[in-house]
Amino acid sequence: MAATLLPTTKLPPPWLLLPCERRFPVYLSFQLPNFVNTNGPICSISKSRPPQPLLSSSSLKNVADSNFEVSTLREICNGHVPEHILRRTEEIGFVSPTDVQRQALPVLFSGRDCVLHAQTGSGKTLTYLLLIFSVINAHKSAVQALIVVPTRELGMQVTKVARMLAAKPAASEHGLNSYVVMALLDGGLLRRHKTWLKADPPAILVATVGSLCQMVERQFLDLGSLNVLVIDEVDFMFSSSKQVSSLKKLLTSYSSFSNRQTVFASASIPQHRHFLHDCVQQKWTKNNVVHIHINPIQPMPSCLLHRFVTCEKNKKHQTFLSILLTDKPQSAIIFASEQSEKSKKAGKIPPTTSMIDFLKTSYGGCSDVILLEEDVNYNLRASSLLEVRQGGSYLIVATDIVARGIDLPETTHIYNFDLPRCAINYLHRAGRAGRKPFSEEKCVVTNLITSEERFVLQKFENELLFICEEVVV
Ligand SMILES: Nc1ncnc2c1ncn2[C@@H]1O[C@H](COP(=O)(O)OP(=O)(O)OP(=O)(O)O)[C@@H](O)[C@H]1O
C-alpha cells in the first residue's frame, strides 16, 4: 500500500495519534523518523495507549479499523487465505481471533512489513502462518516463506503447527496441492536436507539461522523467490552473540527487504522505537514498517498470579518442597539457573541436576521429572518435549532455553527456584503458563527468593508492571 511522502522540513510532532474506538480503545500512532526522507511513516498500532493529541485520518486507519467489526478468523481471512487452510484452521479449533490476530492480520494482508509485539501465548505463530498461507503458491517449487527461530525446539513446534494447517487437502478437494513445510534446524540431518532443498524446494522453510546460512553459503538454498521472511523471538536473536551476525546477513545480503514482506515477532521488544528506527535505517524492512503493539500497559497475561516466598539460602530446597506439597501441580516448569563456567571448572553439579536429584528423592510420586537445558543432547530434548506433549501431566526442570516460545498449554505453575537474570527473562519464563487465549483459568508464578533478592524482584515488578504477593509457607 502506498504511504504519503512527508517532507522532513514540515514534520509534525514525533507522535501523532488517531483514535479508532470500536470494541475497545485503540490508537494508531505515526512515528515520523527524523533521519530519512521516508516513503511512508513508521506506524505503530497499540491497544490501550493513553490518549494523546489527535490528527486526521489516513488510509492506514481504515486497514486497522476494519478488523474491529469482525468476530471470526474466517471473516478476517476470507479472500486472502485459501479455503482449505481456513477449514483446517477451524477443525483444529482456531475460530475466534485473538487480539493480535484481529489487529495484525488485516495489516499483514495489506503487504506491510510488521513488528508483532504481543504478550506471550497471544497467538503470534498462527498470525504469521496465516499471512504465509495467503501469499504462497503450492504449485511453485521454491522457498517462498522462511521462518527463522532461535532454537530447535521452537522450530519443531512451529513446523508442527504449519504442517497441521497445510495437511493434504481431502480427496474431494483434488486439484489442490498441499504445501510442503521443511524444518532446517541445528542438530538435524543436514545431508538429507541438501538433496531435498536442491531437488524440490519446500514452499515453507522453518530454520535456525546457523543451519540456514550454511545452506545458503554452500548454494544448496536459493532465497530468490522469498515472499515472506519471519524472524520469531527477534529480540532474543539480536541479543545472541552466536546468531546476530548471521541474522544480519540474512536480512540484508541473502535477501532484500524490497522483494519480501518482513515480519518480526516477540513478546518483548526492548526500546522498540529504537528497533523500528534500526529496521528502516539498516534496511531490514521497508520505510513504512508497522509496529503492532498489543497491551503495552500490561506486558504479561492477566491470568498469571505472581507470588514470592522468602527463605534463607540453605533452606531453599526444603521450602520449595513445602510449596510443591501444597500446590500439587499437575503440569509445572521449574526454572533453575544455568551453571556458571566457574562452577563447571570446579566440577560442581549443575543447579538443574541437583534439583532433579532432590525431586526424585524427596518429592513422592515424582519419578519422571524431565530435564530441558542447553547441555542436554538435541534428540533427547526433542523426545522429552514429545513425551510431555503426549502425557499432559509433567514436571520439567529447565533453564532459560525453554523460556522462549515453547508452547505447553497445560502448564499451570511456573517456579523460579532461581530468579532470572533480567525482567525480560522473567516475562518469558512466566509466559510458559497461561497459554490458552480464551481461558479464564488462573496460573501461578512462584519465586523463591532470599531477603536480599527482594529488591531484584521489585525491579522486575516495576519494569513489567505486575504485583507479586508474599506468601508464607
Ligand atoms: N485463535 C486462536 N484460538 C484458540 N487458540 C489459539 C488461537 N491462536 C493461537 N492459539 C493457541 O494459543 C497458544 C499460544 O499461541 P502461540 O504459541 O502462537 O503464542 P505466542 O504469541 O507465539 O507466544 P510466545 O511469545 O510465548 O512465543 C497455542 O497453544 C495456540 O494453539
Automatic annotation (TrEMBL):
Source taxon at top rank: Eukaryota
Alphabetical list of SUPFAM superfamilies matching this protein:
P-loop containing nucleoside triphosphate hydrolases
Origin species: Citrullus colocynthis (colocynth)
Q: Which terms are listed as keywords in the entry? A: ATP-binding, Helicase, Hydrolase, Nucleotide-binding
The identity of this protein, by name, is: RNA helicase
Question: So which residues are the signal peptide here?
Answer: none
Pfam families with a match to the protein in the record: DEAD, Helicase_C
Domain Helicase C-terminal: from-to ranges: 316-473
| InterPro entries in the cross-refs | DEAD/DEAH_box_helicase_dom, DEAD/DEAH_RhlB, DEAD_box_RNA_helicases, Helicase_ATP-bd, Helicase_C-like, P-loop_NTPase
Residue ranges of every copy of the Helicase ATP-binding domain listed in the record: 105-287
The EC designation for this entry is 3.6.4.13
Catalytic activity as recorded in UniProt? ATP + H2O = ADP + phosphate + H(+)
